[in-house]
Amino acid sequence: MIAKKRVTAKRKARRMTPAEIDEFFARLAELDPEPGTELEYSTPFELLVAVVLSAQATDVGVNKATKKLFPVANTPWSLLDLGEEKLKRHISTIGLYNAKAANVIALSALLLERHGGEVPATRAELEALPGVGRKTANVVLNTAFGEETIAVDTHIFRVANRTGMAPGKDVRAVEDGLLRVVPSQYRRHAHHWLILHGRYTCKARKPECPACPVRDLCHWPEKTAAT
Fold this sequence. Notes:
Blueprint: H1 18-31, H2 44-53, H3 59-69, H4 76-82, H5 84-90, H6 97-115, H7 123-127, H8 134-143, H9 154-163, H10 171-181, H11 187-200
Helix pairs in contact: 2-8, 4-6, 5-6, 9-10, 9-11
């Protein structure tokens, strides 16, 4: 007789209630009323370039590169004057720098051609730029223009699924879910609260559950214990 294989399904968090979600953001807002990106920038164009460079790279690594790049070239005009090969040398410490340099040069040219060198404030126009996808567009729309968008990266995807706030199988499902459940008064800064929470508390390998300010609201069944 062939023994039946035991299948152990990974436990999933039950969904957070609206009251729990409201309290979740109220606590994060109290701890950090004005959260922001950790990318260093001074103009929408610098932010756009930094976000394009940040794909599969850390904010710390991008900041190190842009700290040297932006004093030399921080506008579409000056980046085109710098040229792709010199740009590569400035960002060579960042992963995928060859492709990123090509995209930055191409988007700079397109901004000059279509938008007078200004960063557009609509999703369609942003996503038409080389190297700019939905996530990058969401970051720029939220951070530079104050739109209530949520750019779902690995941190937000993890937090939304672990806590039961807005579980989803892919980033778009999580984004749509968050926009449905995040209370309106917190939607402006939800993007940054969730990223920072995932980056420093709800970490991938070893989450800091004992020190988490929203531990009691989270429905993740595998919370870590104090050691």
